């Protein structure tokens, strides 16, 4: 109900803003007319018009719940009414005051709803007083001019800025799109890095090549010497000598040539290095400034708190008041948005579980109304600290321990060894809930664990302090802007993933002989500890890639802390990169084991893994029958290889999956031309090709194959969306072995056809 | 309103307020109609109520739709909810998602998830589709791309031409259908699809 009313008021206020703008404009121009010709013939008409504007403005302000504007408008109306009835006379000083008032009204009306009576209530009454003085006919000189100075609607402008910088309004969408573009520039930076290091590689290759050639030069010289040693050179030897000197020339020109290459390459590498530095600096600065643009003061969030806490408390027959500090502190809008739900959850906890009923509070000699404190403060570095505390019942550590033991999070022995603080930290584990304290799962489906997860995802920290009977304090330390972070790029199954570097305990290479099975689970030794080993692809429920050899070292990432460490084996550890977190969008609101995604320097989109989830999932993972991989390996040697040419990525992947799961070795290409090149270079037993492809279609491809001596007999199966009789005939004419229509495609059909030709 | 006022883009607030006042007064006065008038009104209402709900809402309206092919069927959705059409060249699959989620793509720095509506509607698998296009649809609360084989055109369909369809005719459950046009194009209810909680993926790791 409350929300609906708020929304209605918001709408009314938005409409008011438009209306007020027009009315105030008419009012101003009316005042200017009066000023120019105080006793003109249209005097009455003008007075009547501005009187009506003031009157209507008053009415509109009332319906939009803007009491301050209403009050001022009413005072104005009174003045104009007095002027209309000729009770008072117009004077230049009066006009001045009226202009000032109109300006103040314009300011107020520009942001309707952000009125905070406590902030400028005094000023409003001052303005009203002055106008009243006008209408009561007092001499204007007795009144002080209305001070317009302290901007009543912008209390958050710092006082040491004498003239606030000029501002423009820009829609959030435009700003967001700019921000995205600025973020995309990170790729330019990463690319520049890559180019530099690739050039460096090329230089090293050239270095080795040069060494080889100087070896060749030496050999050639020696060879020449050997031939020369003969006293009287026979004709044969003469000829050899000529060849040798020609060879020497070639070697020398080669060396000169490679020196030239080297110079050019070095120069290129140098400029690539400069580019990289320049682009890096520019991009960093651009991002920094863009982030600054998107900062928002906390007040936009704090404003909703008092009402929310009051409503929550009232629903439970409790009394609670809120005190807040630090609304002027700014933070990245995205962080504020992400933190909204967690903060609301914490506040809910304060009211639900912290603050006691009035009778209990009375018994404990506490003030009847509980207090919830929300304090935002600037912490060291680029961080902001949010503390949310209450003077309620506090958290019963013993109850937390009991709950944790019951849920098997810790053992009884472990529990007895925990300090009070350590035990309190248990409330951040999703398993731990006790009815009297944490997690109101019924609310927004957010527990303390999820609050912690959100904070950590944003690169922050979270802590809790509590004293039984005195209250609880939650503290979150958050970065002011969303920073890029480092991630390890790994390959698992057919895919790549990013693992946030900060969550990785270490990267290890496991000798397969060290893997021991304990209680049906694989483990590895790590610094004297036994750490469980799981496959990342198993945890992510994706198909395995066949590993090259069973004896090779297996790379693995160790995640988690202390006793809870788990090693996740991957196929490859590829790189470590600077990455920027991107959410998966509203439709993928929360995906198991996946946090978000990032775009790499090569424009590839890669999912970012959720470490908290992975550790939980690893406990339940059912290792894929290891026999499958072995069988695939055995079949490896005698695999039949199939080339798939198809331009649509989804069809390509589907065909590949179907053929691979049937045991074929599959290579894919995107058009006919690529297919032809691939067929000429590689060994293939069969071609499955789409007809409708760019550059070279399936018909032409088939024709070319039939014309080729080497490829002539290759079985060709055309798969196509076309299914007219002519098409089929044309397919057969050009020499395709079989013709499958996509609309009636099914996988057993394809496999049967393939079997026929192999 | 005076004539010269009509041309200026000013809003006549006084008139609006006057009308509101009149309406308020009318409400306060309450209803008193003579019996004949009453029956007439009631009959009119009954007639309206007996028709399809949708057609009352959008009487005489035109629906601008984008037509597309999805696995050999023609569909249409209202262009109002389409933010853009994007070629599908590459995408990244996301593990641990339902099978109707194809993956994600990068649209100028923003990550957009893409969905196979056929799988979402639980339509029988038929043939292989060439998903070459992504139609990005969005509302205030949700945004994602739906894949299509091809976009066949944009056109206006008079709302009155859209017939309610039997689900057996299209296979798509009635809740996601706006109807079928005269030339048998299935018009999807994009608002329903966008706001369907079933399309939102929100999964925690079970304990």
Number of helices of chain A: 23
Q: Please give the oligomerization state of what you see.
A: heterodimer
Q: What CATH architecture of the largest domain in chain A would you give?
A: Beta Barrel
CATH topology of the largest domain in chain B: OB fold (Dihydrolipoamide Acetyltransferase, E2P)
How would you state the average pLDDT of chain A, rounded?
A: 80
Structurally, the number of domains of chain B stands at 2
Measure the end-to-end span of chain A.
71 Å
Walkthrough of the structure:
The complex is a heterodimer of chains A (758) and B (207). With 758 residues, chain A is of the alpha/beta class. Chain A has five domains: 2-142, Four Helix Bundle (Hemerythrin (Met), subunit A) (Up-down Bundle), CATH 1.20.120; 172-293, Helix Hairpins (Orthogonal Bundle), CATH 1.10.287; 299-395 and 438-479, Heat Shock Protein 90 (2-Layer Sandwich); 485-628, Beta Barrel (OB fold (Dihydrolipoamide Acetyltransferase, E2P)), CATH 2.40.50; 639-757, Response regulator (Rossmann fold), CATH 3.40.50. In chain A, 51% of the residues lie in helices and 18% in strands. Chain A is built from 23 helices and 24 strands. Chain A has a six-stranded mixed sheet. In chain A, strand 22, helix 21 and strand 23 form a beta-alpha-beta unit. Chain B is an alpha+beta fold and 207 residues long. Chain B has two domains: 3-57, no CATH class; 62-199, OB fold (Dihydrolipoamide Acetyltransferase, E2P), CATH 2.40.50. Chain B has seven helices and eleven strands. Chain B has helices at 3-7, 13-29, 35-49, 53-57, 117-120, 167-170, 190-195; strands at residues 62-70, 73-78, 82-87, 101-107, 110-115, 133-138, 143-148, 150-158, 177-180, 186-188, 201-202. Chain B has a five-stranded mixed sheet. In chain B, strands 3-6-7-5-4 form a five-stranded mixed sheet. In chain B, strand 6 (133-138) and strand 7 (143-148) form a beta hairpin. Chain B is elongated, with a radius of gyration of 23 Å. Chain B starts with a helix and ends in a 5-residue tail after the last strand. Chains A and B meet through helix 1, helix 2, helix 6, strand 17 and strand 18 of A and helix 2, strand 4, strand 5, strand 7 and strand 11 of B. Strand 17 (588-590) of chain A pairs parallel with strand 11 (201-202) of chain B.
């Amino acid at each position: 109900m409350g929300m609906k009313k708020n929304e209605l008021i918001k709408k009314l206020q938005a409409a008011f803003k438009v209306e007020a703008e027009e009315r105030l404009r008419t009012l101003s121009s009316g005042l200017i007319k009066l000023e120019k010709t105080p006793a003109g013939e249209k005097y009455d008409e003008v007075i009547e018009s501005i009187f009506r504007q003031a009157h209507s403005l008053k009415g509109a302000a009332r319906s939009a719940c803007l009491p301050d504007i209403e009050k001022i408008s009413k005072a104005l109306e009174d003045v104009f009414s007095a002027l209309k009835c000729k009770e008072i006379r117009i004077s230049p000083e009066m006009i001045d005051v009226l202009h000032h008032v109109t300006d103040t009204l314009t300011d107020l009306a520009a942001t309707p709803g952000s009125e905070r009576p406590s902030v400028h209530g005094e000023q409003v009454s001052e303005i009203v007083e002055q106008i009243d003085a006008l209408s009561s006919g007092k001499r204007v000189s007795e009144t002080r001019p209305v001070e317009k100075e302290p901007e009543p609607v912008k209390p958050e402008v710092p006082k040491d800025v004498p003239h606030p910088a000029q501002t423009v309004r820009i829609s959030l969408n435009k700003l967001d799109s700019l921000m995205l573009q600025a973020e995309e520039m990170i790729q330019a930076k990463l690319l520049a890095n890559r180019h530099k290091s690739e050039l460096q590689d090329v230089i090293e290759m050239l270095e080795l090549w040069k060494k080889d050639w100087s070896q060749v030069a030496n050999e050639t010289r020696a060879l020449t010497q050997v031939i020369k040693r003969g006293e009287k050179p026979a004709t044969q030897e003469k000829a050899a000598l000529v060849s040798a000197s020609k060879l020497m020339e070639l070697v020398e020109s080669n060396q000169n040539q490679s020196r030239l290459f080297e110079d050019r390459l070095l120069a290129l590498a140098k400029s690539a290095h400069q580019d990289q530095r320049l682009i890096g600096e520019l991009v960093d600065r651009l991002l920094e400034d863009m982030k600054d643009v998107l900062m928002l003061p906390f007040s936009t969030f704090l404003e909703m708190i008092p009402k929310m806490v009051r409503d929550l408390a009232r629903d439970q027959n409790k009394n609670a008041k809120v005190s807040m500090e630090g609304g002027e502190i700014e933070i990245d809008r995205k962080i504020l948005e992400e933190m909204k739900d967690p903060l609301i959850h914490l506040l809910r906890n304060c009211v639900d579980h912290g603050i006691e009923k009035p009778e209990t509070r009375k018994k404990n000699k506490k003030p009847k109304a509980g207090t919830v404190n929300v304090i935002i403060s600037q912490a060291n570095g680029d961080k902001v600290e949010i503390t949310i505390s209450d003077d309620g019942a506090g958290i019963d550590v013993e109850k937390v321990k009991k709950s944790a033991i019951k849920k098997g999070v810790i053992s009884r022995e472990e529990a007895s060894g925990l300090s009070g603080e350590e035990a309190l930290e248990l409330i951040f584990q999703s398993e731990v809930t006790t009815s009297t304290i944490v997690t109101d799962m019924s609310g927004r489906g957010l527990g303390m664990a999820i609050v912690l997860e959100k904070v950590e995802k944003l690169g922050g920290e979270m802590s809790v302090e509590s004293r039984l009977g005195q209250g609880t304090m939650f503290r979150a330390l958050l970065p002011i802007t969303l920073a890029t972070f480092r991630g390890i790029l790994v390959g698992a199954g057919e895919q790549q993933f990013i693992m946030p570097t900060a969550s990785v305990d270490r990267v290890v290479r496991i000798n397969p002989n060290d893997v021991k099975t304990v209680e049906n689970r694989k483990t590895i030794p790590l610094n004297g500890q036994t750490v469980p080993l799981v496959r990342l692809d198993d945890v992510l429920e994706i198909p395995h890639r066949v590993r090259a050899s069973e004896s090779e070292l297996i790379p693995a990432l160790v995640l988690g802390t202390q006793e809870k460490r788990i090693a996740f084996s991957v196929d490859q550890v590829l790189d470590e990169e600077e990455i920027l977190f991107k959410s998966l969008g509203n439709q993928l609101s929360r995906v198991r084991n996946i946090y978000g995604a990032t775009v790499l320097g090569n424009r590839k989109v890669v999912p970012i893994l959720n470490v908290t989830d992975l550790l939980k999932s690893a406990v339940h993972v059912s290792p894929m029958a290891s026999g499958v991989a072995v069988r695939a390996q055995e079949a490896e040697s005698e695999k039949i290889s199939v080339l798939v040419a198809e331009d649509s990525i989804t069809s390509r992947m589907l065909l590949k999956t179907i053929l691979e799961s049937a045991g074929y070795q599959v290579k894919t290409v995107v058009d006919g031309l690529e297919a032809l090149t691939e067929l000429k270079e590689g060994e293939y037993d069969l071609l499955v090709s789409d007809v409708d492809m760019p550059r070279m279609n399936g018909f032409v491809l088939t024709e070319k194959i039939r014309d080729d001596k080497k490829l002539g007999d290759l079985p060709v199966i055309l798969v196509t969306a076309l299914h007219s009789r002519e098409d089929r005939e044309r397919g057969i004419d050009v020499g395709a072995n079989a013709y499958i229509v996509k609309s009636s495609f099914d996988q057993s059909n394809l496999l049967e056809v393939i079997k026929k030709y192999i | 309103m005076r004539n010269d006022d009509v041309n200026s883009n000013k809003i006549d607030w006084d008139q609006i307020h006057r009308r509101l006042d009149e309406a308020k007064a009318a409400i306060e006065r309450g209803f008193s109609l003579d019996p004949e008038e009453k029956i007439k009104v009631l009959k009119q209402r009954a007639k309206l109520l007996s028709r399809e709900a949708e057609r009352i809402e959008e009487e005489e309206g035109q629906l601008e739709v984008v037509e597309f092919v999805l696995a050999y069927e023609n569909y249409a959705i209202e262009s109002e909810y389409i933010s853009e059409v994007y070629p599908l060249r590459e995408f990244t699959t996301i593990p641990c998602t339902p099978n109707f989620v194809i993956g994600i793509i990068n649209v100028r720095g923003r990550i957009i998830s893409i969905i196979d509506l056929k799988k979402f509607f639980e339509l029988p698998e038929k043939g292989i589709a060439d998903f070459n296009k992504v139609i990005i649809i969005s509302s205030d609360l949700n945004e994602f791309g739906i894949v299509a084989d091809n976009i066949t055109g944009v056109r206006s369909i008079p709302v009155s031409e859209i017939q309610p369809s039997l689900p057996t005719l299209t296979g798509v459950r009635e809740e996601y259908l706006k109807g079928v046009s005269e030339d048998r194009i299935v018009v999807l209810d994009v608002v329903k699809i966008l706001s369907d909680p079933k399309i939102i993926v929100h999964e925690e790791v079970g304990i």
